[in-house]
Design a protein that fits this description.
Order of helices and strands: HEHEHEEEHEHEHEH
Strand content: 25-35%
Radius of gyration: 20 Å
């Protein structure tokens, strides 16, 4: 057994030569309303590389943890701002676009950054979004929710008063119909993969560059739906 273990360990040293190209990859994504164009793009990008994709909606923090642990192969689209501490995650360039981290407030309430500094306020947010805003020194009570699809529903029903939420620029006007909106930060978003797939990165980057104009077009169309 010891010999077998030694062979496994020496055989596991990562070299590009022993990378066997996968036929299929498992990718997670955060289930928010505007993720569809990014899913379509990455499906096409991997198709260009002759790799099939299986996509699984996953709460936001769990997706990164599964990826860092090597249980899944990649995630469709993430802000790269808070990925540095995950050593097995590779951010693939170029960026797929810019996303706004916004504060959404119920229409009946005053809405500005000061809401984040009042300990009496309760703000719904994912762990990652709070980390991205760490320099804001938030004093409000954070209600952690990694299933972002529920956040808007909770706001609409008046179960929460405030939420941190990722929004594409052309979604902000849509959200303004139901909520007050304050943009807190803009962030580049990228697709990410596990470092065991590092040999794919250059091809992935080229395929993304070739298809980026399609994505931009799709996002504009989704924004006017």
């Amino acid at each position: 057994q010891v010999v077998l273990l030694n062979e496994l360990v020496t055989g596991a040293k990562p070299t590009v030569t022993n990378y066997s190209r996968p036929k299929k990859l498992l990718l997670t994504y955060i289930d928010i309303p505007r993720v569809a164009p990014f899913k379509a793009l990455m499906s096409d990008v991997y198709n260009d590389l002759n790799i099939k994709t299986q996509m699984q909606a996953t709460p936001s923090r769990r997706g990164v943890l599964l990826l860092n642990a090597g249980i899944v192969d990649g995630d469709i689209v993430r802000s790269k701002s808070n990925l540095k501490k995950f050593e097995n995650v590779i951010v693939v360039e170029p960026s797929l676009g810019i996303i706004n981290l916004v504060l959404l407030c119920r229409k009946s309430l005053p809405c500005d950054r000061d809401n984040l500094y009042d300990p009496r306020n309760r703000v719904m947010s994912s762990i990652g979004d709070v980390e991205i805003l760490n320099e804001f020194d938030i004093k409000a009570e954070i209600m952690h929710n990694e299933d972002l699809s529920h956040t808007l529903t909770m706001l609409e029903k008046g179960r929460v008063d405030y939420a941190l939420y990722p929004a594409l620029s052309n979604d902000i006007n849509t959200y303004k119909k139901d909520f007050s909106v304050v943009v807190l930060r803009q962030m580049a978003v990228n697709t990410i993969i596990h470092k065991k797939h590092a040999p794919l990165v250059d091809e992935l980057s080229n395929a993304i560059r070739a298809r980026l104009p399609e994505l931009t077009q799709q996002i504009i169309q989704h924004g006017t739906d």
